Amino acid sequence: MRSFTTILCAIFSFAMLGANAHGTERPGRVITVGAPATEIVFALGAGDSVIATDTTSTRPEVVEALPKVGYMRQLASEGIISLKPDLIVAVEKSGPENVLQELGDLGIPIVKLPSLDEMKNLPDAIAIAGAALGRVVEAQTLTQKIRADIADLGAVVEPNRPSIIFLMAVGHGKPLSAGNHTTAAEIIDLVGGRNPMAEFDGFKPVSAEVIAADQSDYVLLPQSTVDQYGGFEGLKTDPVLGLNKAVANGRVLTVSSSTILGFGPESASEIRDVAAFLHKQEQGR
Hints:
Elements: H1 2-16, E1 30-33, H2 35-43, E2 50-53, H3 77-82, E3 87-90, H4 97-105, E4 110-112, H5 122-133, H6 136-155, E5 164-166, E6 176-178, H7 183-190, E7 203-205, H8 208-213, E8 218-222, H9 223-228, H10 232-236, H11 245-248, E9 252-255, H12 257-261, H13 267-283
Parallel strand pairs: 1-2, 1-3, 3-4, 5-8, 8-9
Antiparallel strand pairs: 6-7
Helix pairs in contact: 1-5, 5-6, 6-13
């Protein structure tokens, strides 16, 4: 009931700002904030209306050529106002709040999607975006696909629950790992793994000593981290990440950086592929 109420309130709020709740009006100038929001808008067929995105949005590739309005949590109102958007579609953690309030006070419709750190919220987010974009039918079709992908994921989940640590390179600082209430933790759970870092919440830096002492069966990495080291062999030679047992043994799982930022339309099928690869690896042990 709560998810239905959330969708209904979003549709009503957007209708009050001048859109038709039945989806007959389609905004022509849309700004998206947050990688999942951008991916959802494009997946709904509204990519031609997107005039700018935030810096976390990297797919589809066409968004790289679009103007950027800054990092999703550090938006500035001046640049957004100058673009004269008809609609802003933003993920839950976008801000700061005073900037969003200023934009709203100027009459710019803002649709904020529910948290996309949890896969269960993705269908609701798609429905809310579809209503705001006047693409209700497209949202229904996309949601059906997402639900099918999630169902398929359940069919290949690894039942033995191997331990999987998440690690991510962050420039010259300490690598990050992921505790509870993170996309990485949910991915580990969805593929049938156990998170050895479940004693803390959020993403936190971890020392070389912790990385070296970790005895996890596998390591989950964003593809961007693997690319940063020139591939798996380069990863093994890193003086910090290379200390990890799973890295040294080549027991590496990868997922896109976009999915680590939040679950979008491609995430369920992407995680399903990770689960299938993990299951194949476990069958061969």
